Structures are given as structure tokens and as C-alpha cells.
Amino acid sequence: MPNFGAQLTRTFVKYLYIFLGSISLALGVLGIFLPVLPTTPFLLLTAALYFKSSERLYLWLIRQPKLGPYILNFREHRAITKRTKIVSIAMMWCTISISAFCFVPLIWVRILMFVIAIAVTWHILSFKTIK
User: Fold this and answer.
1) Residue ranges making up the domain that contains 2
2) What 3-state DSSP class applies to 129?
């Protein structure tokens, strides 16, 4: 006799992953236009969630001409292109600097922001570079 409870749970989890992956995709696409919001982590999360839930959506995502190469390079080589590193680090530092000096009056918050920027820069530079 089939276990309908387990099947229902698998179906629910599948659609939950698709839903969360779609939200992550939307945030990743927004991150392309908003320098404060990161793009790559959301796209990688989307790829992982789609991979676990829907082969069709996963293949659609990695076949996207603008998004697919980032995901595949990272998943296959754990590497980021030189251009992506430069742009992401430059945008982050510009955004954090403007925010810290124009909008944040507390010195300890400014220091924290720059410590976070240093840590994220270090993290981005720790990945291999694809020419």
C-alpha cells in the first residue's frame, strides 16, 4: 500500500523549494540593479533549490545567457571572473563608503561597516579567478 503521507510531504517540499528558489531568483535579479543587494549568492541558492526540486527550472536557469555562466563557473570551478570580482568589490566599497560618510552618524557603525567590507572583499578574492 502506497504511503500517501510521504508522497504528500515530498510534493510539498518540492513546491516549497520552487517557491523559495523563485524568491531567491527575484532577489538576485534585483541585486543586478541595486548595488547593496548581492547577486551571486542568491543565484547560487536559486540553482541549488531548483536542482533539488525541478530539473526543468534548473536547466532553464543555467541556460540563461546572462545568469547561467556565473552559476556554472562557480558550481563547476568554484571560481569567479576577474571582471565580476572587480565590479562587485568596487560597487560594494562605493556603496559602503557613501553610506558610512553620508548617512551613518555613529562611528562604531561606520567601523563595523568597513570591517564587513574588508571581510567580504577577502572572501571574494579567496575564490579562483577565471580569465
Assistant:
1) 1-77
2) strand
